[in-house]
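Running this now, will post back.
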Amino acid sequence: MPKDDSLKHAISEEVHIAAHDSQWAAQFVAERDRLLGVLPGHFAAIEHIGSTAVPRLAANGTCHSSSARSFSGAVASARHIDKLGAKL
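Update: finished.
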């Protein structure tokens, strides 16, 4: 999806709040482990962030993560992550 279309979609997209799902933590761990397995050595850390990371908090149901990486390797890592289908 072109960036302009993506932004338009994000602005007009309805947000659905769901009751906390205990599977969100496991979903994050699975995705983190997948990235670490496919891109070993590319990350100093990958952390679960946002509302789905807070136990017992209702959230939009999309697990977000944040990763730490040196700037020099960030572009190369971003290309690999994009090929995996993850949203940057």
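The mean pLDDT is 80. More later if anyone needs it.
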